[in-house]
Amino acid sequence: MRVALAFAALLIAGGALLVSERRAVTQYLLLRELSEAGFPAATLLVADVDDKELVVRDLRSGSGDLDAALIEARYSLQGLLQGRLEELRIEGLELRATLLGGSLQLGALASPSAEESSPASPPAPLRVPLLPVERLEVRQARLQVETAAGSREAHFDIEMDAQGEAQLSLRTDLLDALAPALGLERGSLELDGRVTARPERLAIEFDHVPGPLHFAAFDIEARDLALELALDPETRAPQGKLLAGQLRDLRPEPRFRPLALELDFEPGESGLDFEATLREEEQAVRLFAQGSHDLSSGAGSARVHLDPVVFTEEGRAPGDVLPSLAGLIPRATGSIEGHGELHWSDAGVGGFVDFGIQELALDAGGARAEQMNTVVRVEGPWPPRIPRGQLLSMARIDFGLELTGGVVSYGVGQDGVLQLDTASWSFAGGTVRTSGSIDLFAREKEILLSLEDVDLAQLLELVNLEGLSGEGRLSGRIPLTLAQGSIRIRKAQLESTPAGGWIRYRPEGKAAALGMVGEATVGDLLKALADFHFERLALGIDGDAAEALVVSISLAGANPAHRDGQPYNLNLNVDGRLADLVRQATSAYHIPARIQEKLSEIAEQRP
Questions:
Q1: What's the burial of 120, exposed, middle or buried (CB within 10 Å: 0-12/13-18/19+)?
Q2: Are 527 and 511 in contact (CB under 8 A)?
Q3: Separation in Å, CA 441 to CA 399, 445, 553
Q4: Domain coordinates in residue numbering, the chain
Q5: pLDDT 10s digits, 128-142
Q6: Which of 235, 376, 488, 538 could lock 267 by a disulfide, CB 3.0 to 4.6 Å apart?
């Protein structure tokens, strides 16, 4: 206002001054104002001045915070007396700012004293004056922002009215500051939006951000973007909202269905505080994150929570959430919920997420598993791993052999190798155990099961041979091969304990009639097997677990009531079917207390 009145007085008296004198006096007034505004070393050239227009060229602030190639001001004497301009046009404007700890230090708009700008003191409040001009036009402007990751630029044109409302065209590489942490593909971004520039508010809105943005490190792109951005007057930190109508996986076989993003951010103690929500199209999946991000260093952290995702026989399937699971797990029942903490910097993304899986039942790889419960910790950096010591319980798994009451301790390395520390199930009155490493990406996977103290009576119930029963205990090994969705048992071998036992084969029908008529070989064999006391029994199993198997039985012993206990060595081959054993055991299944506690902890973290 003061310089406008002084300039008006100059114009009133201008008739008595030469053009050169008017230029010199105007130049003096402008430089004095710049000095008092914090630019004592500023220079400029007044190229022309009269009662309607002022032209200034080559404005240099001396600090580099505020430079301009050309400034044209149009006015009237009445307007100057009121402290207002009709039009202000600026070309080649150069502004410089610093991004420090999430706070934008704009030296051109606010120049605090040395004491105010010391590292120990907070930045002075940013006050954007409402310019006393009916129309402001800025062309070919450049904002240079110094960050910890280097210098960034924004080139813009702007047209503003007397109320501080403006239209903005912007081209910037400022997103490069986030590129290392987010894996964002570098490059300029062109935007058109609205600006509000008033003493109490500096804000920008972009209804549509041309895209998509490509996050190359993750093969993800963001489409249908909108942004609202404002600077907090006290902290100079940005606040606002980012919307993405669609986040898409760019891989040929997508890992997830398209998601919508809503991100709100505001100044916090250590940079920007934010809340973000990812939603699947049908609202069945919701991931919530809350944390902070330091714009100057590109580092931040967040707590994340995945709301329960429920799978049903007739409704949502795993492939509806993660398409990559569609072929592997076509249908499942149960639920999954997650909670964790993430952190990121130039070095990448790290942290952990605990996934609580409850009452999950599924068919996969030729096997059926029921009532699985676990809390799986997945931790980074990328590629993530599952640390050893995770605990999984299940009521039942059936791959031809039906195992019940399983407890598995496991982990998965960054190389995709599953490490089974211990795994045990109940089977036919005994125990099945396994351990070792399994490459989850291998075309064929080998697993060796160890059977201990199996009850022969229950095991023989699996053999499709009428009239066969027995008593004894067996132990042995069952090698399994998993390939192309099937499970093959390769020459499994079980042997009896030294205590031996007995086998009774008392069939009805044709086989029994053969024994009665006394045909030499078959009849003698059936009589011996009617009550055969064995010293050694070996049981072999071979074939596809989902199909009929070849079951071989080798016996050494005698029937005390046949041929005065004559010893026999018998070798029999029969077709076996391994299925439908001890299903009632699942009703007595209980989730281990350690797993139940962890599942409860995840539920308690729901936002």
A1: exposed
A2: no
A3: 20, 9, 36
A4: 2-111+127-247, 298-414+583-607, 429-580
A5: 555 688 899 999 999
A6: 235
